[in-house]
Design a protein that fits this description.
The chain is 75% helix and 0% strand. It is mainly alpha-helical.
Length: 208
């Protein structure tokens, strides 16, 4: 069977599909003015975007176990998965961070750091043909705690919060209350900040 038809790679294609759906609905929700759409229609659009992102992220937890279970691990699948990971994570941050009003500077910094992280990761994969955690290097304190503990430590929790939990909460709240998609509370901004610091440390640790 050709590598590109492996079951985990087919799951990866579905992730890309739902990512494109997410981008489409986010674009519609952020470019439609109040005069052009009712509050209910805008909330529905954001809700579609939220579910698309959630499904794409959910599929990310399936392709790896499937690849190992059926012995369908491949370099192509590894790159396809991690490229989609980093683009998805960056877009989630970019669409839901604060662009204006109180705290706008914070949202800009968050987007900038995550853009740097995505660029570093994509450049690494282009340069070496695999994701860094599959290299022969032993890693360091930061990378070991994020990558090898299966998301059950404070580093990984903050990482997941910044990239998945907080953006999904913001979208859910915007859909249910008709708010701006990048509206934030002090509580969410606090976790944004913690996740952003972890991302910055992670980026430096990977590159160094």
């Amino acid at each position: 069977m050709p590598v590109w038809l492996y079951l985990p790679n087919l799951i990866g294609y579905l992730r890309w599909l739902f990512l494109f759906v997410f981008v489409y609905y986010m674009h519609v929700s952020t470019t439609t003015t109040a005069e052009e759409s009712t509050r209910e229609r805008r909330s529905t659009t954001i809700e579609y975007a939220m579910w698309s992102l959630l499904i794409s992220l959910g599929l990310d937890f399936i392709d790896g176990p499937v690849a190992r279970r059926y012995r369908m691990c491949s370099q192509f699948g590894d790159l396809n998965d991690h490229v989609c990971d980093h683009i998805t994570m960056f877009l989630g941050i970019a669409y839901t961070s604060i662009f204006r009003g109180p705290g706008a500077w914070f949202g800009t910094i968050n987007i900038l750091i995550n853009a740097i992280h995505a660029s570093v990761a994509l450049f690494y994969m282009f340069l070496y043909g695999h994701y860094f955690k599959h290299s022969k290097m032993k890693g360091n304190f930061v990378t070991r705690n994020i990558e090898t503990n299966n998301y059950w430590n404070i580093f990984s929790v903050l990482w997941a919060a910044n990239y998945m939990i907080v953006p999904l909460v913001k979208m859910s709240y915007a859909a249910s209350h008709g708010l701006e998609i990048n509206a934030a509370t002090p509580f969410l901004t606090f976790f944004d900040g913690l996740g952003m610091c972890v991302c910055a440390a992670y980026t430096i640790a990977v590159w160094v």
